[in-house]
Amino acid sequence: MDLTATYLGLQLRNPLIASPSPLSRTVAGVRRLTEAGVGAVVLPSLFEEDILEAERREGMLLDQGADVFPEALSYFPETAAPASSPEAYLRLIERAARAVEVPVLASLNAANAEGWAGLARAMGEAGAAAIELNFYQLPADPEVTSADVEDRLLEALQAARAAARVPVAVKLVPYFSSLGEMATRLDRAGADGLILFNRWLQPEIDFETGRALPGIGLSVPMDGRLPRVWIALLRGRVRASLAGSSGVESAQDLVRYLLAGADAVMTTSALLRHGPDHARSLLEGLQGWMAGHGLERMQDFRARAATPGRPAELRSTYVEALRLANSQDRGPW
Ligand SMILES: Cc1cc2nc3c(=O)[nH]c(=O)nc-3n(C[C@H](O)[C@H](O)[C@H](O)COP(=O)(O)O)c2cc1C
Predict the structure, then answer these.
(1) Which residue's alpha carbon is at the smallest distance from atom 1 of ligand 1?
(2) Domain with 66 in it
(3) Can you count the helices (H) and strands (E) in the chain?
(4) Looking at residue 136, which CATH number applies to its domain?
(5) Can you give the pLDDT at residue 328?
(6) Residues lining ligand 1, judged by CB closer than 6 Å?
(7) Ligand 1 probe mutation, 172, 197, 199, most atoms within 8 A of CB
(8) Stretch 231-258: mean pLDDT, rounded?
(9) Which of the 8 DSSP states describes residue 107?
(10) 251 lies in a domain?
(11) Residue 331 resides in a domain
(12) Which of 102, 259, 260, 296 is the most buried (most CB within 10 A)?
Protein backbone atom coordinates (compact mmCIF):
# COMPACT_ATOMS: atom_id res chain seq x y z
CA MET A 1 0.00 0.00 0.00
CA ASP A 2 1.33 3.41 -0.99
CA LEU A 3 0.67 6.20 1.53
CA THR A 4 2.86 8.85 -0.11
CA ALA A 5 1.19 12.21 -0.39
CA THR A 6 1.97 15.53 -2.03
CA TYR A 7 1.50 18.65 0.10
CA LEU A 8 2.80 22.14 -0.82
CA GLY A 9 4.70 20.41 -3.61
CA LEU A 10 6.58 18.33 -1.00
CA GLN A 11 6.62 14.55 -1.21
CA LEU A 12 5.52 13.13 2.16
CA ARG A 13 5.82 9.47 3.09
CA ASN A 14 2.23 9.72 4.35
CA PRO A 15 -0.36 12.52 4.76
CA LEU A 16 -0.22 12.73 8.59
CA ILE A 17 1.51 15.85 9.89
CA ALA A 18 2.27 16.73 13.51
CA SER A 19 1.01 20.32 13.77
CA PRO A 20 2.71 22.92 15.99
CA SER A 21 2.71 22.04 19.69
CA PRO A 22 5.14 21.64 22.56
CA LEU A 23 5.86 18.13 21.25
CA SER A 24 7.99 19.57 18.45
CA ARG A 25 9.81 22.26 20.41
CA THR A 26 13.01 20.21 20.74
CA VAL A 27 15.04 18.12 18.34
CA ALA A 28 14.34 15.07 20.52
CA GLY A 29 10.61 15.79 20.26
CA VAL A 30 10.78 16.13 16.48
CA ARG A 31 12.73 12.87 16.29
CA ARG A 32 10.18 11.07 18.47
CA LEU A 33 7.28 12.23 16.28
CA THR A 34 9.18 11.09 13.21
CA GLU A 35 9.88 7.68 14.74
CA ALA A 36 6.14 7.38 15.43
CA GLY A 37 5.66 7.63 11.67
CA VAL A 38 4.37 11.13 10.82
CA GLY A 39 4.97 12.38 7.29
CA ALA A 40 6.14 15.85 8.39
CA VAL A 41 6.52 17.93 11.54
CA VAL A 42 5.66 21.59 12.08
CA LEU A 43 7.63 23.39 14.78
CA PRO A 44 5.78 25.53 17.33
CA SER A 45 5.41 29.12 16.15
CA LEU A 46 7.90 31.87 16.41
CA PHE A 47 5.78 34.76 17.71
CA GLU A 48 5.82 38.34 16.52
CA GLU A 49 6.41 39.30 20.14
CA ASP A 50 9.68 37.32 20.11
CA ILE A 51 10.74 39.11 16.93
CA LEU A 52 10.00 42.51 18.49
CA GLU A 53 11.89 41.54 21.63
CA ALA A 54 14.90 40.57 19.50
CA GLU A 55 14.74 43.95 17.75
CA ARG A 56 14.65 45.65 21.15
CA ARG A 57 17.77 43.74 22.18
CA GLU A 58 19.53 44.65 18.95
CA GLY A 59 18.59 48.28 19.59
CA MET A 60 20.23 48.02 23.02
CA LEU A 61 23.39 46.71 21.41
CA LEU A 62 23.43 49.52 18.88
CA ASP A 63 22.98 52.01 21.72
CA GLN A 64 26.06 50.46 23.29
CA GLY A 65 27.97 50.92 20.03
CA ALA A 66 28.35 47.19 19.34
CA ASP A 67 28.37 45.60 15.91
CA VAL A 68 25.12 43.71 15.62
CA PHE A 69 25.64 40.19 14.48
CA PRO A 70 24.21 37.10 16.16
CA GLU A 71 27.47 36.15 17.91
CA ALA A 72 27.63 39.60 19.47
CA LEU A 73 24.65 38.75 21.61
CA SER A 74 26.66 36.28 23.69
CA TYR A 75 29.06 39.05 24.77
CA PHE A 76 26.20 40.92 26.37
CA PRO A 77 24.75 38.63 29.01
CA GLU A 78 21.87 40.97 29.76
CA THR A 79 20.84 40.94 26.10
CA ALA A 80 21.61 37.27 25.36
CA ALA A 81 19.09 35.63 23.05
CA PRO A 82 16.37 33.85 25.03
CA ALA A 83 15.21 30.35 24.07
CA SER A 84 12.27 31.81 22.13
CA SER A 85 14.36 34.28 20.09
CA PRO A 86 14.54 34.21 16.30
CA GLU A 87 18.19 33.09 16.56
CA ALA A 88 17.25 30.14 18.77
CA TYR A 89 14.36 29.30 16.43
CA LEU A 90 16.59 29.26 13.36
CA ARG A 91 19.03 27.00 15.22
CA LEU A 92 16.16 24.64 16.10
CA ILE A 93 15.13 24.49 12.42
CA GLU A 94 18.70 23.72 11.38
CA ARG A 95 19.20 20.98 13.94
CA ALA A 96 15.76 19.41 13.53
CA ALA A 97 15.98 19.39 9.73
CA ARG A 98 19.36 17.65 9.93
CA ALA A 99 18.13 15.13 12.52
CA VAL A 100 15.18 13.65 10.64
CA GLU A 101 14.36 12.41 7.14
CA VAL A 102 10.89 13.94 6.91
CA PRO A 103 10.23 17.62 6.06
CA VAL A 104 10.35 20.01 9.01
CA LEU A 105 8.13 23.07 8.61
CA ALA A 106 8.47 26.38 10.45
CA SER A 107 5.61 28.55 11.70
CA LEU A 108 5.35 32.32 12.07
CA ASN A 109 2.62 33.68 14.31
CA ALA A 110 1.86 37.38 14.07
CA ALA A 111 -0.83 40.03 13.97
CA ASN A 112 1.16 42.42 11.76
CA ALA A 113 2.94 41.80 8.49
CA GLU A 114 6.01 43.94 9.17
CA GLY A 115 9.27 42.19 9.74
CA TRP A 116 8.12 38.76 8.57
CA ALA A 117 9.71 38.71 5.18
CA GLY A 118 13.36 38.56 6.27
CA LEU A 119 12.59 35.83 8.76
CA ALA A 120 10.57 33.84 6.26
CA ARG A 121 13.61 33.74 4.00
CA ALA A 122 15.96 32.90 6.89
CA MET A 123 13.71 30.03 7.95
CA GLY A 124 13.91 28.45 4.52
CA GLU A 125 17.68 28.95 4.45
CA ALA A 126 17.95 27.31 7.86
CA GLY A 127 16.34 24.17 6.45
CA ALA A 128 12.57 24.59 6.85
CA ALA A 129 10.89 22.73 4.00
CA ALA A 130 8.01 25.23 4.08
CA ILE A 131 6.53 27.95 6.25
CA GLU A 132 3.15 28.25 7.90
CA LEU A 133 1.79 31.74 8.47
CA ASN A 134 -0.46 31.85 11.48
CA PHE A 135 -2.01 35.28 11.23
CA TYR A 136 -3.50 35.67 14.67
CA GLN A 137 -5.15 39.06 14.77
CA LEU A 138 -8.23 39.68 16.84
CA PRO A 139 -10.36 42.33 15.15
CA ALA A 140 -11.80 43.37 18.49
CA ASP A 141 -12.03 47.05 17.52
CA PRO A 142 -15.54 47.68 16.13
CA GLU A 143 -14.08 50.37 13.83
CA VAL A 144 -11.92 47.84 11.96
CA THR A 145 -13.66 46.62 8.80
CA SER A 146 -13.55 43.08 7.41
CA ALA A 147 -11.79 44.50 4.33
CA ASP A 148 -8.99 45.87 6.59
CA VAL A 149 -8.52 42.49 8.25
CA GLU A 150 -8.48 40.66 4.93
CA ASP A 151 -6.10 43.13 3.28
CA ARG A 152 -3.60 42.81 6.13
CA LEU A 153 -3.63 39.05 5.84
CA LEU A 154 -3.06 39.26 2.09
CA GLU A 155 -0.22 41.75 2.56
CA ALA A 156 1.42 39.45 5.09
CA LEU A 157 1.19 36.53 2.69
CA GLN A 158 2.54 38.52 -0.24
CA ALA A 159 5.50 39.81 1.81
CA ALA A 160 6.39 36.34 3.04
CA ARG A 161 5.81 34.77 -0.39
CA ALA A 162 8.06 37.28 -2.12
CA ALA A 163 10.87 36.71 0.35
CA ALA A 164 10.71 32.99 1.05
CA ARG A 165 12.35 30.52 -1.30
CA VAL A 166 10.24 27.67 0.11
CA PRO A 167 6.46 27.09 -0.06
CA VAL A 168 4.25 29.20 2.20
CA ALA A 169 0.94 28.01 3.64
CA VAL A 170 -1.63 30.09 5.51
CA LYS A 171 -3.25 28.72 8.64
CA LEU A 172 -6.77 30.05 8.54
CA VAL A 173 -9.51 30.65 11.06
CA PRO A 174 -13.13 30.18 9.95
CA TYR A 175 -14.18 33.67 11.11
CA PHE A 176 -14.55 35.42 7.76
CA SER A 177 -17.85 36.65 6.35
CA SER A 178 -17.06 34.80 3.14
CA LEU A 179 -14.32 32.30 3.81
CA GLY A 180 -14.52 30.88 0.28
CA GLU A 181 -13.76 34.23 -1.31
CA MET A 182 -10.92 34.84 1.17
CA ALA A 183 -9.48 31.43 0.37
CA THR A 184 -9.55 32.09 -3.37
CA ARG A 185 -7.90 35.50 -2.87
CA LEU A 186 -5.13 33.89 -0.84
CA ASP A 187 -4.81 31.24 -3.52
CA ARG A 188 -4.46 33.85 -6.25
CA ALA A 189 -1.96 35.81 -4.11
CA GLY A 190 0.33 32.77 -4.16
CA ALA A 191 -0.49 30.72 -1.05
CA ASP A 192 0.94 27.26 -1.63
CA GLY A 193 -1.39 25.78 0.93
CA LEU A 194 -4.35 26.55 3.16
CA ILE A 195 -4.64 24.94 6.58
CA LEU A 196 -8.19 24.66 7.87
CA PHE A 197 -8.35 25.57 10.72
CA ASN A 198 -6.32 27.17 13.43
CA ARG A 199 -7.98 27.25 16.86
CA TRP A 200 -8.50 30.54 18.57
CA LEU A 201 -8.19 30.06 22.27
CA GLN A 202 -10.88 32.13 23.89
CA PRO A 203 -10.21 33.13 27.50
CA GLU A 204 -12.55 31.89 30.22
CA ILE A 205 -13.87 33.90 33.16
CA ASP A 206 -12.85 32.47 36.50
CA PHE A 207 -16.08 31.65 38.30
CA GLU A 208 -14.67 32.54 41.74
CA THR A 209 -12.46 35.56 41.09
CA GLY A 210 -14.20 37.04 38.05
CA ARG A 211 -10.82 37.35 36.32
CA ALA A 212 -10.20 36.35 32.73
CA LEU A 213 -8.03 33.24 32.45
CA PRO A 214 -6.03 32.31 29.37
CA GLY A 215 -7.91 29.58 27.54
CA ILE A 216 -6.03 26.53 26.40
CA GLY A 217 -7.81 23.29 25.76
CA LEU A 218 -7.61 20.28 23.53
CA SER A 219 -9.99 19.68 20.65
CA VAL A 220 -12.70 17.04 20.31
CA PRO A 221 -13.55 15.04 17.13
CA MET A 222 -16.61 17.21 16.40
CA ASP A 223 -14.23 20.13 15.78
CA GLY A 224 -13.35 18.43 12.50
CA ARG A 225 -16.77 18.94 10.95
CA LEU A 226 -16.46 22.58 9.92
CA PRO A 227 -12.99 22.26 8.37
CA ARG A 228 -14.13 19.17 6.48
CA VAL A 229 -17.10 21.02 4.99
CA TRP A 230 -14.80 23.81 3.86
CA ILE A 231 -12.19 21.47 2.44
CA ALA A 232 -14.91 19.72 0.45
CA LEU A 233 -16.22 23.08 -0.78
CA LEU A 234 -12.78 24.38 -1.76
CA ARG A 235 -11.51 21.17 -3.34
CA GLY A 236 -11.01 21.74 -7.04
CA ARG A 237 -11.66 25.47 -6.64
CA VAL A 238 -8.17 26.43 -5.46
CA ARG A 239 -4.73 25.49 -6.71
CA ALA A 240 -3.27 25.55 -3.18
CA SER A 241 -2.88 22.33 -1.20
CA LEU A 242 -5.49 21.83 1.49
CA ALA A 243 -4.58 20.57 4.95
CA GLY A 244 -7.17 19.49 7.49
CA SER A 245 -6.46 20.54 11.05
CA SER A 246 -8.72 20.12 14.09
CA GLY A 247 -10.28 17.18 15.85
CA VAL A 248 -8.22 14.26 14.52
CA GLU A 249 -8.56 11.92 17.47
CA SER A 250 -8.90 8.59 15.66
CA ALA A 251 -8.11 7.03 12.28
CA GLN A 252 -11.76 7.58 11.35
CA ASP A 253 -11.29 11.34 11.67
CA LEU A 254 -8.18 11.13 9.52
CA VAL A 255 -10.02 9.12 6.85
CA ARG A 256 -12.92 11.60 6.89
CA TYR A 257 -10.54 14.48 6.12
CA LEU A 258 -9.06 12.54 3.19
CA LEU A 259 -12.55 11.76 1.92
CA ALA A 260 -13.38 15.46 2.14
CA GLY A 261 -10.41 16.12 -0.17
CA ALA A 262 -7.55 17.07 2.16
CA ASP A 263 -4.04 16.62 0.75
CA ALA A 264 -2.61 16.33 4.27
CA VAL A 265 -4.08 15.97 7.74
CA MET A 266 -2.67 17.50 10.91
CA THR A 267 -3.00 16.55 14.53
CA THR A 268 -1.95 18.08 17.83
CA SER A 269 -4.53 17.43 20.57
CA ALA A 270 -4.59 13.66 20.10
CA LEU A 271 -0.79 13.48 20.23
CA LEU A 272 -0.75 15.58 23.39
CA ARG A 273 -3.49 13.44 24.92
CA HIS A 274 -2.10 10.01 24.03
CA GLY A 275 1.58 10.70 23.29
CA PRO A 276 3.49 10.86 19.99
CA ASP A 277 3.14 7.09 19.44
CA HIS A 278 -0.54 7.66 18.80
CA ALA A 279 0.54 8.71 15.29
CA ARG A 280 1.42 5.07 14.62
CA SER A 281 -2.07 3.84 15.49
CA LEU A 282 -3.63 6.60 13.36
CA LEU A 283 -1.57 5.41 10.40
CA GLU A 284 -2.31 1.75 11.07
CA GLY A 285 -6.00 2.61 11.23
CA LEU A 286 -5.72 4.48 7.92
CA GLN A 287 -4.07 1.49 6.26
CA GLY A 288 -6.68 -0.87 7.72
CA TRP A 289 -9.48 1.30 6.39
CA MET A 290 -7.89 1.55 2.94
CA ALA A 291 -7.39 -2.21 2.78
CA GLY A 292 -10.99 -2.82 3.81
CA HIS A 293 -12.30 -0.41 1.17
CA GLY A 294 -10.02 -1.42 -1.70
CA LEU A 295 -7.86 1.72 -1.78
CA GLU A 296 -4.19 1.35 -2.62
CA ARG A 297 -2.88 4.88 -2.77
CA MET A 298 -3.79 8.41 -1.73
CA GLN A 299 -5.06 9.32 -5.21
CA ASP A 300 -7.75 6.65 -4.78
CA PHE A 301 -9.38 8.92 -2.19
CA ARG A 302 -10.09 11.38 -5.01
CA ALA A 303 -12.42 8.93 -6.72
CA ARG A 304 -14.33 8.31 -3.50
CA ALA A 305 -14.27 11.91 -2.28
CA ALA A 306 -17.40 13.13 -0.56
CA THR A 307 -19.40 15.54 -2.70
CA PRO A 308 -19.38 18.91 -0.99
CA GLY A 309 -22.94 19.80 -1.89
CA ARG A 310 -24.03 23.08 -3.34
CA PRO A 311 -24.85 25.88 -0.87
CA ALA A 312 -28.57 25.18 -1.31
CA GLU A 313 -27.98 21.54 -0.40
CA LEU A 314 -26.02 22.55 2.70
CA ARG A 315 -28.97 24.63 3.81
CA SER A 316 -31.43 21.82 3.15
CA THR A 317 -29.24 19.38 5.14
CA TYR A 318 -29.32 21.86 8.02
CA VAL A 319 -33.09 22.34 7.82
CA GLU A 320 -33.62 18.58 7.56
CA ALA A 321 -31.42 17.94 10.63
CA LEU A 322 -33.32 20.48 12.74
CA ARG A 323 -36.74 19.31 11.52
CA LEU A 324 -35.84 15.75 12.44
CA ALA A 325 -34.49 16.80 15.84
CA ASN A 326 -37.57 18.94 16.58
CA SER A 327 -39.94 16.13 15.67
CA GLN A 328 -38.63 13.85 18.42
CA ASP A 329 -38.42 14.08 22.16
CA ARG A 330 -35.21 12.13 22.14
CA GLY A 331 -32.81 12.34 19.21
CA PRO A 332 -29.59 10.57 18.29
CA TRP A 333 -27.41 12.93 20.40
C1 LIG B 1 -0.65 23.23 23.59
C2 LIG B 1 -0.85 23.74 22.19
C3 LIG B 1 0.14 24.53 21.60
C4 LIG B 1 -0.04 25.00 20.29
N5 LIG B 1 0.92 25.80 19.72
C6 LIG B 1 0.74 26.27 18.45
C7 LIG B 1 1.71 27.09 17.84
O8 LIG B 1 2.76 27.41 18.41
N9 LIG B 1 1.46 27.53 16.58
C10 LIG B 1 0.33 27.19 15.88
O11 LIG B 1 0.17 27.59 14.73
N12 LIG B 1 -0.60 26.40 16.44
C13 LIG B 1 -0.42 25.94 17.71
N14 LIG B 1 -1.38 25.14 18.27
C15 LIG B 1 -2.56 24.77 17.47
C16 LIG B 1 -2.36 23.38 16.85
O17 LIG B 1 -1.23 23.33 16.02
C18 LIG B 1 -3.60 22.94 16.03
O19 LIG B 1 -3.76 23.81 14.93
C20 LIG B 1 -4.88 22.98 16.85
O21 LIG B 1 -4.68 22.47 18.16
C22 LIG B 1 -5.97 22.16 16.15
O23 LIG B 1 -5.58 20.84 15.96
P24 LIG B 1 -6.02 19.64 16.93
O25 LIG B 1 -7.50 19.63 16.95
O26 LIG B 1 -5.41 18.41 16.33
O27 LIG B 1 -5.45 19.97 18.28
C28 LIG B 1 -1.22 24.67 19.57
C29 LIG B 1 -2.19 23.86 20.18
C30 LIG B 1 -2.03 23.40 21.47
C31 LIG B 1 -3.10 22.55 22.09
Answers:
(1) 21
(2) 5-326
(3) 12, 13
(4) 3.20.20.70
(5) 80
(6) 19-22, 44-45, 107, 109, 134, 171, 198-199, 216, 218-219, 223, 245-248, 267-269, 272
(7) 199
(8) 97
(9) E
(10) yes
(11) no
(12) 260
